[in-house]
Design a protein that fits this description.
16 helices, alpha/beta, 8 strands, eight-stranded mixed sheet, 363 residues, 14% strand, 47% helix
């Protein structure tokens, strides 16, 4: 039974207020630490490299052709390679990334030979549109519609959908909302939302791991901190413990510069953080959205996880296998990889994906 509108508004306000307070308390030591560093070295804290043009690595022709398409009232930017007459393999990235996080997959010849590979900047990221400062524009229903229309605009009725982190959350939701558009689903280091809820209830350590999401509810402060020290958080999340990659040599200085350039684009930080700022609307919706979604996943699904993921407990990978939500599921945990799985162990990831895809074609 749905609560009356005034009650829903009150619940939403209380949930949002609680998350803001929780986020501020969680991040207070970090905020104070960064502010102290700013006071000690204000010139370094507030100086930023001028980034007018994209770095050379970003426009490397070996990665594919850069294109854009208008869908769902916005423009989506993407990079594509492979034979356009082959089936579509569509890649969705996570936070704080862009299409470039799939560079190792875009270059993989076996994928190019068998698929048209497309890595897209999701709305709010990179060179794609950033429609609003307000979180509502980044509701998962809007992003799922972006994906649906993108598949059609590329000339396809369905695809192999490959996703990581926030892209994985969107992909899981999209596969339930529009199963006819997904031939096969590959998700890396991101739980299906029902599994995330049940796992967090049973494993409170995951709640602690996820407290950064509450911090992201605070307006302006995350953007301010992330842009300080010339977007120093980019280097921290990819290269330093606890979140950084295991195989840091695969995140070169040139790669870091691409992600810093991406983060420096106008409204990119706010757009990407708005994915998190929409979370209260899923927990306590004011506007009731009656969307019919499948309860189970009928298509073949491959779940992959980095065993050294510091944000999302790798044990959640097995929870997917035990959930009973999938008709055909394969789970792989990569021992020597972090949350940034497809960049940390690209050769392993590509081989697992290729072998799995071939095995599913034989059935």
């Amino acid at each position: 039974m749905a609560y009356p509108l005034p009650v829903r508004i009150l619940i939403r306000v209380l949930v949002s207020a609680f998350l803001l307070l929780l986020g501020f308390c969680f991040a207070l030591p970090t905020i104070l630490s960064v502010l102290w560093r700013m006071i000690r070295n204000p010139r370094k804290a507030f100086s930023k490299k001028k980034r007018t043009n994209p770095p050379a690595a970003y426009v490397d022709p070996a990665l594919g052709k850069h294109e854009a398409v208008n869908v769902n009232g916005i423009q989506l930017y993407y990079v594509t390679a492979g034979d356009p007459d082959k089936p579509l393999m569509l890649f969705l990235h996570g936070f704080p990334e862009c299409w470039y996080s799939w560079r190792y997959q875009l270059k993989y010849e076996e994928f190019r030979e068998q698929y048209r590979v497309v890595a897209v900047d999701l709305r709010g990221y990179g060179r794609s549109s950033k429609p609003s400062y307000f979180p509502g524009a980044y509701h998962r229903d809007n992003i799922a519609e972006d994906v649906r229309q993108l598949i059609g605009a590329l000339g396809y009725d369905s695809c192999v959908l490959v996703a990581h982190d926030w892209g994985g959350a969107i992909a899981h939701y999209f596969a339930r909302l529009h199963p006819e558009y997904v031939d096969k689903l590959v998700v890396m280091d991101c739980p299906e939302d029902r599994i995330m809820k049940s796992f967090a209830r049973a494993n409170r350590s995951q709640i602690v791991r996820s407290l950064y999401m509450a911090f992201f509810q605070i307006p302006f402060i995350p953007e301010f901190l992330f842009s300080s020290f010339d977007y120093g958080f980019i280097n921290n999340v990819f290269r330093k413990k606890p979140a950084g990659m295991v195989n840091t040599e695969r995140m070169t200085d040139e790669d870091i510069e691409v992600f810093k350039w991406n983060a420096s684009l106008r409204r990119m930080l706010t757009g990407s953080l708005n994915y998190y700022r929409c979370l209260p609307s899923y927990v306590a919706p004011i506007v009731l959205r009656k969307r019919k979604t499948a309860k189970r996943f009928a298509m073949p699904v491959l779940i992959m996880w980095g065993a050294c993921d510091s944000a999302l407990d790798p044990n959640m990978a097995k929870a997917h296998e035990e959930s009973g939500l999938y008709d055909d599921i394969t789970v792989r945990v990569i021992p020597s990889a972090s949350h940034w799985l497809q960049q940390d162990e690209p050769d392993v990831v590509n081989q697992i994906m290729l072998t799995w895809l071939i095995s599913k074609e034989k059935k």
